[in-house]
Specification:
Layout lengths: L1 H15 L8 E7 L5 E7 L5 E3 H19 L16 E4 L4 E2 L2 E3 L7 E8 L8 E7 L16 H16 L9 E6 L4 E5 L13 H4 L31 H9 E9 L6 E7 H7 L7 E7 L3 H6 L5 E8 L6 H11 L1 H4 L15 E4 L2 E2 L7 H7 L7 E9 L15 E11 L2 E2 L2 E2 H9 L16 E5 L2 E2 L21 H8 L2 E7 L17 H7 L5 H5 L3 E6 L2 E3 L1 H19 L11 E4 L3 H4 L5 E5 L1 E4 L2 E4 L3 E4 L12 E11 L9 E7 L9 E5 L2 E5 L4 E4 L1 H4 L3 E3 L2 H13 L2 E6 L2 H6 L12 E2 L8 E7 L22 E9 L9 E9 L1 E3 L2 E7 L12 E9 L6 E9 L6 E4 L1 H4 L4 E4 L7 E6 L5 E2 L8 E6 L2 E6 L3 E4 L5 E5 L16 E7 L7 E8 L5 E5 L12 E2 L3 E5 L11 E7 L1 E3 ...
Parallel strand pairs: 1-7, 9-15, 21-23, 38-45, 47-55, 67-73, 79-88, 80-81, 84-85
Antiparallel strand pairs: 1-2, 3-6, 4-5, 4-7, 8-13, 9-10, 10-14, 11-12, 11-14, 12-13, 15-16, 17-18, 17-24, 18-23, 19-20, 21-22, 24-25, 26-27, 27-31, 28-29, 30-31, 30-36, 31-32, 32-35, 33-34, 37-39, 39-43, 40-41, 40-44, 42-43, 44-45, 46-48, 48-49, 48-53, 50-51, 50-54, 52-53, 54-55, 56-58, 57-63, ...
Helix pairs in contact: 3-5, 12-15, 25-37, 28-33, 37-38
InterPro entries: HATPase_C_sf (IPR036890)
Pfam families: HATPase_c_3 (PF13589)
Protein name: Structural maintenance of chromosomes flexible hinge domain-containing protein GMI1 isoform X1
Length: 1684
């Protein structure tokens, strides 16, 4: 009703609003002599007046238009428009004969003008004079429960409110006349007229009440709140008058007006025009007041409503009594006068009789029977506080308030009879048709503003009910509480229902009043209630205590109950109070008692009449008196008295038993019952003689139930009942059960032959038994099956078509009855009795109509089916189901086809399928469903498919989800794009895959593990031999296999699965051969050297293999070593270049004989060649006597020319062999070399490539003195650095290989050659060092620029709102869009659903509980902080769903179900886990917050170092550096904590934020938990640091000041500059690398030359020394001299 009230208030505003503010609008209703009412409007007239002639002409024109529209041919008087006596007259009698002056009228109001044309004949009634059109279609809001009294009271309400405004000395009279001809209501209120302020229209126009605005004046004051401003809805008078009569004439006159204005309401017009767009205009007019009206209202104002009754008139006396009850405080009030005298505030007359003189009515009778003790009076003040956010001023009044007074009056028991029962007894003879009895009589009476709400007959208020379940005084309290009636008086703060017969049930004050003392008021906390009694404010607990104390006080002082018995009592202590119905610890047990002059004693047989007391409501009861119990001692007041009696039918041995022995006194109730003494005091307990007793006993025996009979179809038809269970035949599932089944109870004297009429009432028991129907079900007819409970109901007997004692069960409403095939058992039995029962069986079979095919329930558990290629699905048992899921039996075996399908595509036909029929013919069994499909790769990797069962040439009737996996590994296909190419030693196979198949050519499934056995291969990834198949059915070994065998060797790879070799693949490494291409003389002089011996590696075709190159840095080592019989001769290695290797020299021994020389590949020992050289001393002797030329010609070895200068070049300019003296120093021996770590000297190209390899350890020993010497000799312009002699791979490149003592000091110009070569080496070494320094700087700078670009891109992405020129809502939408793109994420599902109103309505509790997502609940001031915090939390926490309550913890399955439901609605899936944060259960901040901060930042102390200062670079705590989103800043938990104190304190805690990582290091001593820095440092907690960086896709929105950051254009320009600089650095790195390579090449050339120079000098020195040691010293000296 609150909505209706607000609706009518808005209508009132419309009526009170001026039509045109600022304009002058003059409205006139011109009443013509022919009864026509012509409305005229003049807006903003230019002249002060208009002529009468002009005005009348306009009226005439409009009158003609009105008559043309009516076209009703109604006879009307002629208007003489041309009369010379024409004039206008207003309501005050002013006449206008020449002109109408506008100054004589108030603008913006309606004025009545009557036209006179000089003819006496005129009319008093005018058509359509009053516009009563409602502003809205109010008929939908009209009350439906109107009665004659209610409608009449509505009219009296209007009159009472009218007369209440009369001044002192003015009569306040309300006179009602009710007779067969008319009903009239007359009041002496201020009346109405034709003016806008007091217009009579407002009485007849629905929704236009003038009294509703006075409601606020009726709030507050003193009880009983006699301020009769009843107006609420604005249609009371109109609807009430139309309810009482079809027409109503309303007449009214104000003190100022001379005329009586009247209008006529017509019910038919109201009904016809309601809800339409037509106007509802009523006729009316003006007349002179009558003499009786003047007499009744001496002050000259009144309102009168006259109706012709259309309802049956009530009894006049009863009407007078009821109206007196309704308005009793206004008729007889003793609370207004200070002297306490009874005062009549308003004269109420009904048919001339003053209601104050009427004796009768419920109020008067009730007042007579109350006690004279003090009443329990409470005052309530109810209010709804204004929202705290709306106003914080302490002076702001509550938005809504109301007041009530509760006066509880005690009605004691006197002379053994309850006073309330006496009230009922007195009211019924007076014609009050009260259907209530003592138990159901309303204990609450409510008046609003002094007016009784007659239908407000509530139960006791919660505080008036005893809440204790046990206790000594509980029974007294329960009994005495029913003797209290509460009279409630309320002010206008409480709203009534439209009929004003009760309070509006949904109004918050009504709910609060009804629950006063209950739990709902305490839980809702919407309405605040202040309770006072005697000026003292009470809590609910205090209220209950004081009320109960008052109850006991009234009981002790005014209740007149039994106090003594006629015999000596037996005292019973600590008896079973609950069973006996007593309250005292001490009870007196009597066997005789006297009440009201009559004695009652043990053993007396009595009849207790119906309604005598509690427990005897429906039937008379015969019983035997046994004992009388009196509470307390004899002098105790207010004790309880009870009767112990044994009902007829209970055997004597089952009655109560009183035992008195040494252990004490005890009374067992057993099958007897305990009744209150009021059963005797009420006169409804009468003695019976033996004859009557025996007759009742015999009658009882005959009426004892014997059997239960269920009526059949024939008997039910007689009773017009659609009944009878179908027990004769089996019914089909879905058959409709009978709507009702009827059972009757047969007495003991019944037999089928007794009567032919089975419905004879003599043989149907009609006693009040309760019969139970227990329906059970089992899914078959086999005896071993057990029945399951299906349905249970209990009914009492009723009648149908005059036949009583019928127990009718509505089985037609039992859910799912007869829908399941099986056996239904219907068992009928009496409640709490085993004397009679009846069972009926109904058998139900499955329906013949097939609804679906499906697997048996046991098979459903294994879905989806799983099998592998080559195997069979498990036996499938399927059956046919009807629409109720009953199995329909088959008639025979059917042919079934099985197909394996996937997305409508056929995968395979399953052949040789076997079909069998079960023994019970309920289902078929399909076996031998073997899978031979070879195309399972189509459904890879899920292998999900559908097994479709169908009959031939028909659509599948059953689609079974399944997974068909490939079979076990059976075959392996070796796949390589390098197929056909030969393998080479040390080769890494770049493309090599193992394709794994089952026996049906399907790739095996992912994850199958096999063992690879290799020979001649090694795995580069070092993860072992066991490998798993990938998602495509391959094992990819590309780039993982390296050939470890040599040339021409076999290699293999085997695949083992389950310890069996599945496949084996053998390969052969390509064959190579080492050949010596230089022709070596068969005979050589002993001690000579072989020069420039060339070797080649050729393939099987004999072609040179130019791929054989010594490239150590690329992992290819191809060197040659020479093996001879000489000791320590294999320390040298010679590099291959493009398949060719040249050995500069081989020194031959100085002995004669055969000398074998073997050349072998250093790593591939299969590449070797061995040749023999015969050494002869004769050739040595000849060489001493013959010319060198001949010797040279015989031993020519084609040594390439060297470019070095000096004596060595001159000595070695001749080709041939050289002699050697054993005393001269020779190259390093094997024991002096570290061959395992030998160093390669880069090649020195002098014609043919020649490379020498020396021991690193020896070189290191000899390097230091050489470096020192070289440093001394180097040019001072070059800075010496030890890295000059290092190759790019870090190995030492020596400037010389011998110490100075091992070298013969060169003479003359030879020293300058060494100095020049050494200077050049130092130059290029320094140049390389500078270039490498440049490279290092460039690489570092490139990394810095790359990091800067990454940071700029991140800042651009998280640009603050002001920089990106976007609103906060737009940036929020961007973050939302990112969240929505998170596939299969619950956060994405929620974000979409939260913007869909229909989805929100489906799950209102979930949507109301969720606050939002973490990423959307806060903003950050800077992009770097936003990114750092997002990295710290991680995406899982950023996408966390935040809820207010802990429902997600208590019932997580409910939230998961909602999310899955929303996902289904959106066509998405919900996978993985989702973080849900419940604010009620997380750790909350319990400290202080910063004052005057609307963001409620936490008052956290800054960290301090040991010296008490704040660490440098500390920016703040993360929990305070974010801002709560403005839409969620008001979110509070029940404890009043916001998101910062709960959510973000739980996420961040005391996380500290610093500028840089260095600042974090400096502040480690004062970081208690975690810290982050804006340059990417993250320390989750002490001891745990995150390294590296990551891309943050989801972050907090950034809102900051514009001047703090670069603009977007500036940032884009900065990014372009960084990219340009990065390009320049890349170019510099490439250029410097080229320059470095060039310098390295120059360095290697100079180094090779330097080494050659040393070698040449060494050879010359050796030659000189050898010549000095020969016998022919002079000749040698001469020869030497010639050489030099």
């Amino acid at each position: 009703m609150d909505g209706t009230k607000r609706k009518f208030q808005s209508i009132q505003k419309i009526y009170n609003k001026n039509d045109d503010e600022g304009d002058k609008v003059y409205r006139f209703n011109v009443l013509l002599p022919n009864g026509i009412n012509v409305p005229m409007i003049r807006r903003n007239p230019e002249n002060e007046s208009i002529s009468l002639e002009f005005f009348v002409d306009r009226v005439k024109e409009k009158c003609s238009a009105i008559l043309r529209q009516k076209d009703d041919n109604k006879p009307r008087r002629r208007v003489f428009w041309e009369s010379t006596e024409l004039y206008l007259e207003d309501v005050k009698g002013n006449k206008f004969r020449r002109e109408v002056r506008f100054d004589d009228f108030v603008p913006n109001k309606t004025h009545l003008l009557k036209l006179f044309d000089g003819v006496d004949q005129t009319v008093d009634a005018f058509e359509n004079m009053w516009d009563l059109t409602p502003d809205t279609d109010l008929l939908t809001e009209l009350p439906e429960d109107y009665t004659f009294e209610t409608a009449l009271a509505d009219l009296i309400d209007n009159s009472l409110q009218a007369v209440w405004s009369n001044g002192k000395g003015e009569r306040k009279l309300i006179s009602v006349e009710v007779d067969a001809d008319k009903i009239s209501v007359f009041d002496t209120g201020p009346g109405m007229d034709g003016s806008d302020e007091k217009s009579i229209v407002k009485w007849g126009k629905m929704g236009a009440s003038v009294h509703r605005s006075s409601k606020k004046l009726a709030i507050g004051g003193k009880p009983p709140f006699l301020t009769p401003f009843f107006g609420m809805f604005g249609y009371g008078g109109t609807i009430a008058s139309m309810h009482l009569g079809r027409q109503a004439v309303v007449s009214a006159k104000t003190r100022e007006s001379k005329k009586v204005y009247w209008l006529c309401l017509d019910r038919d017009a109201l009904v016809k025009r309601s809800g339409s767009d037509l106007n509802w205009k009523a006729p009316g007019g003006m007349r002179d007041p009558s003499d009786s009206e003047i007499e009744m209202s001496p002050h000259g104002s009144f309102t009168k409503i006259v109706m012709k009754p259309k309802l049956k008139l009530p009894d006049m006396f009863q009407l007078q009594c009821k109206l007196k009850d309704i308005y009793f405080p206004y008729i007889q009030c003793d609370e207004v006068s200070k002297a306490g005298r009874t005062t009549t505030l308003v004269d109420f007359q009904i048919n001339g009789i003053n209601l104050a003189e009427v004796e009768g009515g419920e109020v008067a009778v009730t007042n007579l029977h109350s006690c004279n003790g003090p009443d329990f009076v409470l005052n309530l003040h109810l209010y709804i506080e204004e929202e705290k956010a709306a106003s914080k001023s302490p002076n702001v009044k509550p938005v809504r308030e109301g007041n009530a007074r509760l006066k509880c009056v005690y009605f004691p028991i006197t002379e053994g009879k309850e006073s309330i029962q006496r009230i009922l007894d007195n009211l019924n003879p007076d014609g009050y048709d009260i259907k209530e009895d003592y138990e159901s009589f309303s204990r609450i009476s409510i008046r609003r503003l002094g007016r009784l709400l007659p239908e407000a007959r509530w139960d006791l208020l919660p505080f008036m009910k005893p809440k204790q379940k046990r206790g000594a005084k509980v029974q007294i309290l329960k009994r005495c509480c029913s003797r209290v009636k509460c009279f409630v008086d309320t002010d206008a703060g409480f709203n009534p229902i439209p009929s004003k017969t009760d309070l509006a049930p949904h109004h918050p004050f009504t709910r609060a009043l009804k629950d006063l003392g209950g739990d709902t008021l305490h839980k809702e906390k919407v309405v605040q209630v202040n309770i006072t009694r005697g000026g003292k404010q009470l809590t609910l607990q205090q209220l209950e205590r004081e009320y109960q104390a008052w109850i006991f006080q009234m009981h002790g002082q005014y209740d007149d109950e039994c106090n003594t018995g006629d015999d000596e009592p037996v005292y019973l202590v600590n008896a079973n109070k609950e069973a006996l119905g007593i309250t005292s610890d001490v009870v007196r047990v009597h066997q005789a008692i006297s009440r009201k002059g009559r004695s009652w004693s043990r053993g007396q047989k009595v009849k207790i009449l119906k309604g005598a007391c509690t427990g005897c409501h429906k039937n008379n009861m015969f019983a035997v008196l046994e004992y009388f119990l009196l509470d307390g001692l004899e002098k105790d007041v207010g004790g309880e008295a009870r009767i112990i009696c044994r009902p007829l039918g209970v055997e004597d041995e089952d009655g109560s038993l009183l035992t008195v022995d040494a252990s004490g006194t005890n009374l067992e109730l057993r099958s007897s019952i305990s009744l209150p003494i009021i059963a005797i005091d009420s006169g409804k307990c009468v003695p019976v003689n033996d004859d009557d007793w025996n007759f009742q006993a015999d009658k009882l025996i005959l009426k004892m139930p014997s059997t239960i009979e269920v009526l059949g179809q024939k008997q039910c038809k007689v009773l017009d009942i659609d009944g009878a269970l179908p027990t004769d035949d089996t019914v089909s599932a879905g058959s409709l059960p009978p709507k009702e089944v009827v059972a009757i109870l047969r007495p003991s004297n019944f037999s089928p032959s007794t009567t032919t009429n089975e419905l004879d009432q003599k043989y149907i028991l009609r006693d009040d038994y309760e019969m139970c129907l227990n329906v059970k079900f089992k899914a078959g007819a086999d005896d071993y099956l057990k029945f399951d409970q299906f349905y249970t109901v209990t009914v009492t007997n009723t009648s149908r078509r005059g036949c009583q004692g019928l127990y009718i069960f509505s089985v037609g409403s039992i859910p799912s009855l007869f829908q399941k095939a099986g056996t239904y058992s219907f068992t009928f039995s009496l409640k709490n009795s085993a004397t009679a029962s009846c069972e009926k069986i109904v058998r139900v079979k499955a329906s013949a109509k097939v609804k679906r095919w499906g697997l048996l329930k046991d098979n459903d558990k294994d879905l989806p089916l799983s099998a592998s290629a080559g195997s069979c699905f498990p036996p499938l048992s399927f059956c046919r189901y009807d629409e109720y899921d009953n199995i329909i039996p088959f008639k025979g075996t059917q042919q079934i086809e099985c197909q394996l399908m996937s997305n409508g595509t056929l995968i395979s036909h399953l052949k040789n399928v076997k079909v069998e029929l079960s023994s019970d013919m309920d289902h078929m069994i399909v076996t031998n469903t073997r899978i031979t499909a070879s195309n399972l790769d189509k459904i890879r990797p899920s292998y999900e498919a559908t097994l479709a069962l169908s009959q031939p040439d028909m659509q599948p009737f059953l689609n079974i989800p399944c997974q068909v996996f490939p079979g076990p590994l059976q075959a392996v296909h070796f796949s390589s794009s390098e197929s056909g190419k030969g393998l080479l030693p040390q080769q890494v196979v770049e493309d090599f895959k193992l394709e794994m198949f089952d026996r049906h050519k399907n790739h095996v499934k992912q994850g199958i593990e096999v063992e690879l056995v290799v020979h001649g291969f090694s795995f580069l990834d070092k993860i072992g031999l066991k490998r798993k198949v990938d998602n495509e059915g391959f094992i990819d070994l590309s780039g993982l296999l390296k050939v470890t065998e040599g040339y021409g060797k076999p290699v293999s790879l085997s695949v083992k699965y389950n310890k069996n070799v599945i496949a084996n693949k053998k390969f052969l490494v390509e064959k190579r051969e080492l050949r010596m291409v230089t022709e070596v003389p068969e005979v050589c002089p002993a001690g000579s050297k072989l020069k420039d011996i060339a070797f080649e590696v050729v393939n099987a075709e004999g072609d040179l293999d130019q791929t054989v190159n010594d490239e150590i840095k690329h992992g290819k080592s191809h060197t040659l070593r020479i093996l001879t019989d000489l000791p320590n001769d294999d320390s040298l290695r010679y590099a291959f270049r493009q398949g060719r290797c040249t050995v500069p020299s081989i020194t031959l021994p100085q002995r004669e004989g055969s000398f074998f020389i073997e050349a072998a590949h250093s790593h591939h020992h299969e590449l070797r060649v061995k040749f023999k050289v015969t050494l002869s001393r004769s050739l040595r002797a000849e060489s001493n006597t013959t010319s060198d030329l001949r010797a040279t010609e015989e031993l020519d070895c084609d040594e390439p020319q060297s470019s070095v200068s000096g004596a060595a070049n001159h000595v070695r300019s001749k080709k041939g062999f050289e002699c050697q003296n054993s005393e001269v120093t020779v190259p390093l021996s094997v024991d002096e070399c570290d061959t395992s770590s030998s160093l390669k000297i880069p090649k020195v190209e002098h014609g043919s490539p020649t490379t020498a390899i020396f021991s690193e350890s020896k070189l290191r020993k000899q390097q230091a003195p050489l470096e020192q010497t070289s440093n001394q000799q180097s040019d001072s312009n070059y800075e010496h650095n030890s890295d000059i002699f290092k190759s790019p791979d870090g190995k030492i490149i020596c400037a010389g290989y011998y110490t100075p003592k091992n070298v013969v000091t060169p003479l003359g110009s030879d020293l300058s050659d060494f100095e020049s070569a050494e200077k050049e080496i130092h130059y290029y070494g320094s140049l390389i060092k500078a270039q490498e320094d440049d490279l290092k700087w460039s690489v570092v700078r490139r990394s810095e620029i790359t990091e800067d670009l990454r940071n700029l891109q991140a800042e651009l992405e998280m640009l603050p709102l002001q920089l990106s020129h976007s609103s906060s809502m737009f940036q929020k939408e961007l973050v939302l869009e990112k969240i929505k793109n998170k596939a299969d994420s619950a956060a994405a599902i929620y974000s979409i659903a939260s913007q869909n109103m229909s989805l929100q309505d489906q799950h209102p509790n979930f949507m109301a509980d969720v606050v939002g997502l973490v990423a959307l609940l806060a903003t950050a001031p800077t992009p770097m902080l936003s990114r750092s915090l997002a990295e710290y939390l991680g995406e899982d926490q950023m996408l966390g769903i935040v809820c207010l309550s802990n429902a997600a913890i208590i019932t997580p399955e409910n939230y998961e179900t909602v999310l899955k439901s929303l996902a289904g609605e959106l066509g998405r899936s919900f996978e993985g886990r989702q973080l849900v944060i419940c604010l009620e259960d997380i750790r909350a901040y319990d400290g202080d917050v910063i004052e005057n901060d609307h963001q409620r930042r936490l008052d956290l102390a800054n960290p301090t170092l040991h010296d008490g200062t704040t660490p440098p670079g500390f920016l703040g705590y993360a929990v305070n550096m974010i801002d709560i989103d403005v839409d969620h800043i008001q979110v509070k938990t029940v404890a009043g904590r916001g998101l910062r104190e709960t959510l973000f304190y739980d996420l961040f805690g005391d996380l500290q934020v610093y500028e840089t990582k260095e600042h974090i290091k400096h502040a480690l001593g004062c970081i208690t938990n975690a810290a982050i820095s804006l340059d990417g440092g993250i320390m989750h907690r002490k001891g745990r640091v995150l390294l590296g960086s990551m891309h943050v896709d989801l972050h907090f929105r950034v809102v900051a000041e514009e001047q703090e950051y670069l603009s977007r254009d500036e940032m884009m320009k900065e990014i372009e500059n960084k990219k340009l600089e990065l390009s320049m650095v890349e170019e510099a790195i490439a250029y410097t690398n080229e320059q470095r390579e060039s310098s390295l090449n120059n360095f290697r050339e100079r180094e090779a030359g330097f080494l050659k120079l040393i070698e040449d000098k060494e050879e010359i020195n050796k030659l000189i020394l050898s010549q000095q040691t020969t016998p022919m010293a002079p000749m040698h000296t001469q020869s030497s001299g010639q050489l030099f």
